[in-house]
């Protein structure tokens, strides 16, 4: 696969002199370049998108949107292996998982079509009293406005589908800014949309020369909806700067807890927990991070995870045999190492890992009983580290699981229905998996961070609804 330079995707704008260089996280080699915009280019992008939305005669009818999305899904299917390798190179997720990501993206585009096929309004009851006599009221859905989407690096193709696909389905012009580490998959997807017949102004992919230009795009009064996937610090900051009236959805991370009861089927669950915690080197917002296991089984759980972690093949993400790839950049490997060292110094037992293997790869690590105040216990690790904590009283385990300012997905592992229901009711989470890992997801289900973990509900059908308004018409006639 040769390096490629992606030209500007903003009609009428001029690229800055210096494109953004994209490097592979595994070996730090330059693998592509992407044209960059300045403040003037950002203004052009906003003007393009707003002009499309402001002129209702230019709105794409549903049949056209369906045709574009159907062709898009077909083109992705035709190029699936190339897209998977490209995503693995730029994002570091192993090829076996990047192939799954592209398959999910194809299904996600088809899900957008299904949303359009079932999109409908509703009738509001009238003729219930004198004030509502002789009236018929109904609603239909319209696009909310210009969508500004800012994405994350960890699923460089599928996250873009989740933000851009529903916008196109809803009829919204969209400007999308991918993570600076992983823009290639985003630009590739927008190329495919345009090849499928989408007018250029309807979807513009941008890389900005600095954060000020990115903020200019997000905070502009012409933006109707802001979609953000990334860190809580950045997401909440940008939300505070949105123009009056702009709506938003924020998806941040968490520190996903697992409650393992004494009756857990350990042998069945350990492979799921290891995959859920070490998949993509732990760089998933709902990765298995904190496993609270009953004291009678905690050591067995920790030792089992240790054995599985040691068996993981770590290396070049473009190789089919690799199970765990690199962290996205060297400083992330630095950070993970610092957090693990801090936990060990505080009394945690490092059962395996705890060492850097290269500039960006870090050994799969299992920590036993880290201190409650250690950063691995308090914050999202976003690295290949699983912590196991023994407990005697399940109420204490639930209290510890709920003690952080994050709440996203959680799981409980038990064969007892009452225990499962108790944990489901008491865990602070938007979703609780029973006898599964915390990172389970299909793209049509609701996916929502609570507390500091986010705002609104993700998942393609829910994002599709968020990017529309429900517009009512009231008709008065003596025949009604």
Can you characterise this structure?
Helix 2 packs antiparallel against helix 5, helix 2 (62-78) crosses helix 6 (184-195) and helix 3 crosses helix 4. This protein is 38% helix and 20% strand. The mean pLDDT is 97. The chain is an alpha/beta fold. The chain folds into 2 domains: 4-252 and 453-473, Aldehyde Dehydrogenase, Chain A, domain 1 (3-Layer(aba) Sandwich); 257-443, Aldehyde Dehydrogenase, Chain A, domain 2 (3-Layer(aba) Sandwich).
What can be said about the biggest beta sheet? Answer: 7 strands, mixed
DSSP strand count = 21
User: Please, how many domains?
Assistant: 2
What is the structural class? Answer: alpha/beta
Number of helices: 15
């Amino acid at each position: 696969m040769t390096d490629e330079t992606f030209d500007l995707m903003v009609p009428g704008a001029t690229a800055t002199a210096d494109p953004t260089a994209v490097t592979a996280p595994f070996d730090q080699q330059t693998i592509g370049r992407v044209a960059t915009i300045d403040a003037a280019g950002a203004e052009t992008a906003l003007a393009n998108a707003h002009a499309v939305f402001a002129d209702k005669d230019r709105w794409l009818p549903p049949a056209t949107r369906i045709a574009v999305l159907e062709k898009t899904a077909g083109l992705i299917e035709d190029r699936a292996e190339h897209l998977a390798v490209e995503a693995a190179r730029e994002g570091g997720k192993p090829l076996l998982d990047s192939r799954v990501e592209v398959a999910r993206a194809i299904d996600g585009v088809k899900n957008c079509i299904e949303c359009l096929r079932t999109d409908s309004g509703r009738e509001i009851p009238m003729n219930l009293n004198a004030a509502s006599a002789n009236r018929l009221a109904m609603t239909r859905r319209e696009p909310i406005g210009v969508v500004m989407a800012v994405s994350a690096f960890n699923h460089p193709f599928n996250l873009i589908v989740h933000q851009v696909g529903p916008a196109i389905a809803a009829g919204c012009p969209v400007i999308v800014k991918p993570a600076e580490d992983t823009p290639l998959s985003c630009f590739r997807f927008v190329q495919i949309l345009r090849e499928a017949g989408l007018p250029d102004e309807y979807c513009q992919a941008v890389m900005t020369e600095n954060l000020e230009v990115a903020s200019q795009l997000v905070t502009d009064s012409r933006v109707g909806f802001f979609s953000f996937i990334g860190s809580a610090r950045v997401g909440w900051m940008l939300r505070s700067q949105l123009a009056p009236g702009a709506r938003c959805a924020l998806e941040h991370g968490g520190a996903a807890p697992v409650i393992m009861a004494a009756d857990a089927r350990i042998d069945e669950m350990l492979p799921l927990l290891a995959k859920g915690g070490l998949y993509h080197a732990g760089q998933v917002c709902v990765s298995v991070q904190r496993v609270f296991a009953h004291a009678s089984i905690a050591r067995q759980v920790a030792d089992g995870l240790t054995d599985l972690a040691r068996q993981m093949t770590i290396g070049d993400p473009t190789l089919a045999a690799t199970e765990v790839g690199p962290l996205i950049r060297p400083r992330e490997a630095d950070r993970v190492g610092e957090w693990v060292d801090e936990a060990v110094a505080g009394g945690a037992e490092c059962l395996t890992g705890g060492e850097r293997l290269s500039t960006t790869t870090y050994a799969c690590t299992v920590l036993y009983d880290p201190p409650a105040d250690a950063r691995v216990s308090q914050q999202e690790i976003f690295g290949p580290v699983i912590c196991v904590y023994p407990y005697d009283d399940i109420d204490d385990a639930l209290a510890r699981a709920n003690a952080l300012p994050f709440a996203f997905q959680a799981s409980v592992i038990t064969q007892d229905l009452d225990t499962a229901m108790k944990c489901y009711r008491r865990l602070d989470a938007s979703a609780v998996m029973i006898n599964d890992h915390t990172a389970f997801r299909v793209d049509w289900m609701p996916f929502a961070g609570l507390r500091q973990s986010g705002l609104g509900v993700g998942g393609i059908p829910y994002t599709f609804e968020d990017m529309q308004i429900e517009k009512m018409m009231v008709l008065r006639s003596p025949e009604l």
